[in-house]
Amino acid sequence: MDFYSGLFSVGSLKVLLFSVISYFVYVYLLKPALHYIYIVIHYHGFHYQPKSFLLGHVKQIWPNFPFPIEMKTVAGNLYEKMLKIVGPNPSRSLSVLWISIFPVVFASGHEVVEKILHRTNLKRPHFCKFLGLGDGLISSEPDVWKVRRKLIEPFFTTKKMRDHAKHMYEEVKSFGQQLDKEVGKPVDLVHQIHTSTLNIILKTSASIPLEDSIEDKERYVELVSTVERNAVKRAANPLYQLDWMFKLFQFSQVYYKAISSTVEIINKMFRRRKQLLKDSSSNEPENQDLVGLLEGKVDEQGLLDELITLIGAGHDTTAVALRWNLFNIGNHYDVQEKLYKEIIQFFPDDTPIDDMDKLKECVYLEQVIKESLRLNPSVPGTTRVLEEDIMLNDERLIKGSMVNVSSLATHYDPNVYPNPTKYDPDRWSPENASKIPKTAWIPFGYGPRICIGYRYAMVELKIYTAQIIRKFSLRSTRPHGSVSMLYEVTFQPSLPLEIIMTPRNNNQSNF
Q: Is 10 contained in some domain?
């Protein structure tokens, strides 16, 4: 009895309570803080550009920090900073960008891609959540991502791609007719292309007819652009990283309102789909779309997150890639004419460009697109939070570090691509492509978390490019290399990518 009395005495309970509190303080506060201090000290031993002690490189990106600034200025400064920090320097594949006291390791080169983006490093950094994609494939934690990816993969099978190609051509044919109004004058097709690619992804993923909900689609394109700029602004500001602190600033109201508006439009599209199916005789979509694939397998919020992710990322990255591709083609007459001859060989006159087998035979078409994606990848790179220590070039990257693999620097490595700034589709000819390491071309990422829709995007780019080149000859109004990129969620051009389109007559070029 005395034993139990002593065991549950006030003094014993105080010791027990102190031990429990000490354990939680150590595990959840002290240990992470000490590890973070270790990371900060460790990466001060890496290469980095001169910086401020407390603000790091923030003032170089955001000169009047913390006061308001035009986001185009931030995106342009960030791009220029990236070129200095992790440019295609063969002798240096690792460098550090400091957002205040937070280090972000930038890596480049095909040798490091395999080690960083392999199967054990699946965790995305916290700022992926800034895009408002919830737990969609881009931003979800590894456990959720693994389950969702398996559920979504059937949407991109070869059989489904044949169905998607037909829907793509249906929209692209209409898009080509719209371009007839733009011939003979300088035009940046930014609005037309983004709206058109959105039409396609909404048709294939949610069975929304191409001609349906036009106003909502146009509004959504504008909102996606706003959300992306806001996400970059938040990521570049150390005061905006923590949610509770971010909500103290007025900008947070603008930020959350834009995200809320995009969710509202997708919900509206979701309701529109239900109404269309209810009014149809079969009560089912013509082909199983993404919504039908996921319904009953994930909860409603999960379905919404994946729909927002696929629609947002699926239309925007393809649109940006297409704009750069047309601009590059418009600067190279010889490439354009060679491409045109190949296209009319497999798709003469008004032959529908939706045959997957014939598209595969258009070898030069793929070379042209791959070279444009090398020079102007849609996204700046791929970021991971390391789940284990990694040794790269005799330097240790620590578990918990945020590491960005730069697609641009990797694509401009002169050891892999001689004269890397030159536009040369022949780099990708069968005899030359075999010499290029698979990890030296990463516009869609690499490894397990590679973009799930990369085949979809390539087919879409081929159909758009083939239809436009078949109908028009193109001339860019600015020379190749004269338009820099803005480091946003996607690599937007700093100036309009204007082209002049001239109709082709009877398979003859009017360049």
A: no
